[in-house]
Amino acid sequence: MSKSDGGKSAGTDKNPTLRIAQQPEADGLLARSPLAALVGMLLDQQVPMEWAFTGPYTLAERMGADDLDAAGIAAYDPEAFTALFTTKPALHRYPGSMAQRVQQLCQYLMAEYGGDASAVWRDAESGEELLRRLNELPGFGTQKAQIFLALLGKQFGVRPPGWRAAAGAYGEEGSRRSVADITGPESLAEVRAYKQEAKAAAKAAKAKKAAPKTTK
Length: 216
Fold this sequence. Notes:
- Helix 2 (34-43) crosses helix 3 and helix 8 (127-135) crosses helix 9 (142-155).
- The chain is mostly helical and 216 residues long.
- The chain is 57% helix and 0% strand.
- The chain has helices at 24-32, 34-43, 49-62, 70-75, 78-86, 95-113, 119-122, 127-135, 142-155, 163-166, 185-210.
């Protein structure tokens, strides 16, 4: 595993130790399953990060498996698959729409990568190429793609040349901006505090912009 930004290898660390879900079994699945990591990232919006990244483990349990399988999910009956998400406790705040997005992601992986999630990044020759591939995934906008790219680089050892630059601010060493920086309860709290501050600043800026101008 290269420690520099210009490392040539885009392969993952064999056994990364993750503490994103804050639950050993869920984190173990994220560490060994590229698809679980992708699904966790897809679910990471409008819910606590731990909830999102525990989702793949809960989904695998409900499917009676110890891992997620792109082919199986892609071919699953849509209504039955949605039921896996909506069964209490629900896998997400918006279980119906997220079930659809997860299924669309797996269908895309089957069509473009033969169902192999790790193929999205395994032979990427540059950070820019990897960002483009991630951005093409259903449900992955630019921000989500950059965060996942940073996660791959910081915790999975996926470091094609230029990966930090492609990840933007999320790729900065020592940052506490996203799930890519979570290595335990303390960093989780720091990332959550950053997100709350950023949200408050954005809200204040929006309010200032909307405020009526006064004339002297």
